[in-house]
Fold this sequence. Notes:
Layout: H1 5-10, E1 28-29, H2 37-59, E2 88-90, E3 93-95, H3 103-108, E4 119-127, H4 135-138, E5 146-155, E6 160-166, E7 171-174, E8 177-182, H5 186-190, H6 203-215, E9 223-228, H7 231-238, E10 242-246, E11 249-252, E12 255-257, E13 260-264, H8 266-274, E14 281-283, H9 290-310, H10 317-322, E15 328-330, H11 334-347, E16 353-357, E17 360-369, E18 375-384, H12 386-397, H13 405-409, H14 415-449, H15 486-489, H16 500-517, H17 525-548, H18 559-562
Parallel strand pairs: 4-9, 6-16
Antiparallel strand pairs: 1-15, 2-3, 4-5, 5-6, 7-8, 9-15, 10-13, 11-12, 11-14, 17-18
Helix pairs in contact: 2-11, 7-8, 8-9, 14-16, 14-17, 16-17
Amino acid sequence: MQKSRKRNRGAEGADRHDDFTAAKSKTVVINKKPWGLKKKVILGFVGVIAAAMIVAAVFLLQIVSNPMGGLITVGNVTRTPAPEPTPYMSDGELVTPTATVDPLEELKKQVNFDKLKDIVNILLIGVDHGDERDASTWKGKTDFHSDVMIVLAINTNTNEASMISLPRDTYSKIPGVNGVYRLNASLNCGGRWPEDPGDDTEAPFRKVCEAVSWNIGGIPIDYYYAVDFSAVKGLVDAIDGVDYDLDISFKMNGRSYTMGRQHMDGQAVLDYLRVRKSKDIIAPKGKDGDLERIKRQKNMLKEIFLKLKNTGLLFKLGDILNAFQGKLFTNLDIRDTLGFAYYAYTKIDPENLKIYTISGSRHTLFDLQKSDGDEMDALGLFFPSKSSRAQVINAVYGIDITNTSIYKEYDGYSYESAAILWARMQNYVVVDKSRPLLDEIKDILDKDALLPPKPTPEPTPGTTPGTTPEPTAGTSPETNSVKGTAATQAASDGYRKYGDDVRALYAYAEGEYEQLAGWGKPSSGSDAYNLSTVMTQFKKDVQSLCATLSIKIPKFKSWDDYWAVVFNTPNPKEINQPYVHNEIFVDMR
């Protein structure tokens, strides 16, 4: 039975991966209540730095070259020492005024360092949850995924910080949930982005932590920060925008921007960070796609954080904190957050900030189909390399996972394993749905065979009767449509309508069917490929026969719809194969 989202979000005893130790602290929604002036001043500029670090981190996954340059500047900040007290005269006596309070020392009294032991793992989650969407692209989609996931590992023994970026489209197990999912669907498997009163503010992010933990060898991730990308809009407005040399002219939801140096507000910056499609980029050509967007995001974020670094942020602290209202969720309280920021500010040198990515390959598999028959492209999936995964985990944690059970479990999420599973799912549907069609084809041809053949007309003098070539061995007869003989194309009442070419194609298709029905589970990726090749030809042959015999497929928009494998649907009754049923429906567009 399908697990309902509401139940899954609220279940406190939900299944968790055996190797995952869940943190007990309750999620804190940053700045849901206004901060008092005294507290704002006491927390000071390190609080701003903490917020800036979080926003920067959720975009780091997008950066492919020199990822730390210009973004995380905590270790580079030069602190101006408090001035020496100047003696002065009062009523004839020398008076020494009280020394200026060092805000860093004052902050140290307010922070909590209890979490800073050994290696602390914090998951940074980015969700593009802005209300404004391109209706032609999103088509009513309401699911918003954890599209950026970065593990921040703070090693207090070596004063190093490492970041492991995990691609959003990683083919991944979601602990406690059965089905085929990308890693970014983990948030939806735990619930949804909290936006309404009463929404669970913890379960969605816990599920992301569990899924990411599984992807890094089962190492526990106890803490998280989840931020809405649109928070950058409020952040930029809070620092009075940025001056930027815009490298493209583009449009977004009715707004247009022209290349050149200009002052950009929060909305303009957010549009710039999002634009990707060629239809929205006016000039120059060739600036569309994810790679170009990554470059733009890196350059813009550098400008934002250079301004954060060089501006008197203390005087805008309230506005900057308000930029995150309702858009930043964490299970750490503000004292913990500032403790991490203080530690990074005082202990971690920029040279000790490292970012790791796990190498792998990308493929498209598992065609998606909505319950209303709306066709969707195949899932684009990233398949991490087992060896690369082990190397990164060893580099960050000093742990060898190659002899663990979870390392062996990764074999079930390789490209070869996925290709085998997808071929089995398709083959089941093709065999199941083709049998009624083949039976109908046979019935029509059997009845036609009872009729006398149409008399062959006498050849016209001076011409040579044509001959029908034998089909090439190993290939099916004419498959686009059966048009080989005059007897096939037209027939008089009382005579056979279909010629030998149609019957030959039918016999060939029956042989293909028997081959598919007896195939079993593919033994390897190459075997899965061979199975897919036979399936593709078989479907063409069946479709050709149906076209020739005028057999319709009611209730379906197209042949692709007819052959579709249904596994990701809110209605369990629509599942048409026994291998995969996504326990929780996720709109994975």
